[in-house]
Amino acid sequence: MSQAVEETESREIAEFRAEVRAWLAENRPPKPDFVMPQNFLFVETNEQFEYLRDWQAKVYEAGYLGLDWPAEYGGGGDTLKRQRIVTQETGRAGTPFFVNTIGLQWAGPVILKYGTEEQKKKFLKPILSAEEIWCQGFSEPGAGSDLASVQTRAEPAASGNGWTVNGHKVWTTIGTRAKWMILLARTDPDAGKYPGLSFFLMPMQVPGVEVLPLIKMTGEGGFNQVIFTDAAMPRGAMLGAPGQGWEVAMATLTFERGAAEGTGGGQATSSADTVQRAAKLASQTQRDGRPASEDPLLRDRLVQLWMQEEGLRLGGMRRRVPGLSPDRPMVLALMNKLVYSEYAQNLAELGCEILGPDAALWMGDPNAPADAEWPRAYMNSFGMTIGGGTSEIQRNILGERVLGLPKSK
Predict the structure, then answer these.
(1) Which residues contact 99 (CB under 8 A, 6 or more apart)?
(2) Which residues, 6+ apart, have CB-to-CB distance to 307 below 8 Å?
(3) Are residues 80 and 121 in the same domain?
(4) pLDDT of 305
(5) Residue 244 domain-assigned?
(6) Catalytic choice (44, 256, 294, 353)
(7) Taking residues 29-52, what's their average pLDDT?
(8) In a domain, 266, yes or no
(9) What per-residue confidence (pLDDT) applies to 214?
(10) N or C: which end of the chain has fewer CB within 10 A?
């Protein structure tokens, strides 16, 4: 955020921003002596997990997570909506991301929206403090982009006390660490594709839940598949009403895609891959005895990406000002995930192009620039253009809901 923009903030907000900035400068954790994941999708080792969980707990204890959530559920009860300031400043400082991203940004907000009083009091504070980690049970081997085709079944238990779950979920980020899952399951196979779905808060550490890690092309873990075999859920596990699962799932995705406010805070990545960093890389990388930054085509691509970066930043500010998009009020919110994920992918690709042959060097190679952070970011970027709805799905949503185009078949 530029100094000019900061000068337009109220005194109270400006003072809070300065407070957060000073706290982060004094309390940011030391750089670990092990390789860190680039975002929450790829947390794998015990060292990574504990380091990140300790950091989230410290930020929460300082009062900088859950600011906008009601105080009775462990939040700050802040009427000034200052959580975005913390998110901006942690991003600016390049501090570690928060390991409980799914809890903070997806599960927590949707529990606040649809949960009973008992569910809110039980789940929200442990989400903020990272005491209880959450994962997401949406996609299946036969139901990815066509999410409503999920076949995982939740049936009333024979005992009459709770539910029994059978099925198969994939793309279950941090599933090996999670205590709870937000689960979309079919409760009435005769009710139709959408009305037959319900939404649950599923315990993960019960018999009948098997988490199987999946390894990505980078060699990192973090992704998983989950097999349910007569797994038990308690009676109060349902979020919302029977058959309301599709509505709750769509609300969850608006939070996941950054199209709605009300999250517990934080960013999903610690990556400092900005155009400024790419420009610095270009100035330090030699091509034919000259800095790569002197290549006019490369400079043009950097400028194009810088304009996208500024557009994303200014679009985020514009979204918060009522009346600036009266003709299509949801356009900026709905396009955020699509534009950001493709911007990040194009930036990582450019970083690899700047490196030239050195982009083929991998982690652990003493000659790999920045321990292969740019090629690693490029490979990881494909997960971001798929997760939360592929770029193709996002374009369909924009066409149908913003432009009013007919629904694709």
Answers:
(1) 40, 43, 49, 52, 53, 55, 56, 130, 133, 174, 177
(2) none
(3) yes
(4) 96
(5) yes
(6) 256
(7) 93
(8) no
(9) 92
(10) C
Long-range CB pairs of 294-298, under 8 A, 24+ apart, other chains included: 298/350, 298/353, 298/354
> CA–CA separation, 266 vs 96, rounded Å?
10
Q: Which of the listed residues 256, 285, 310 is the one where a domain comes to its end?
A: 256
CATH number for 192? 2.40.110.10
**Would you place residue 227 in the very low, low, confident or very high pLDDT band (cuts 50, 70, 90)?**
very high
User: Which residues constitute the domain of residue 193?
Assistant: 134-256
Amino acid at 223: F
Query: What are the residues whose beta carbons fall under 8 Å from the beta carbon of 179, sequence distance 6 or more?
Result: 132, 133, 134, 203, 204, 205
pTM as predicted: 0.91
CATH no. for residue 34? 1.10.540.10
DSSP per-residue codes, 46-102: HHHHHHHHHHHHHHHHTT-SSTTS-GGGTS---TT--HHHHHHHHHHHTPPPPTTHH
The amino acid that residue 158 corresponds to is A
In a domain, 55, yes or no: yes
Asked whether residue 242 falls in the same domain as residue 298, the answer is no
Count CB-CB contacts under 10 A for residue 295.
Answer: 16
Residue with token string 């085509």: 297
How far apart are the C-alpha atoms of 266 and 65, rounded to whole Å? Answer: 8
Distance CA(264)–CA(269), nearest Å, equals 15
Q: What is the pLDDT of residue 373?
A: 92
pLDDT (tens digit, 9 = 90+) per residue, 10-26?
899 999 999 999 999 99
Is 256 among the catalytic positions?
yes
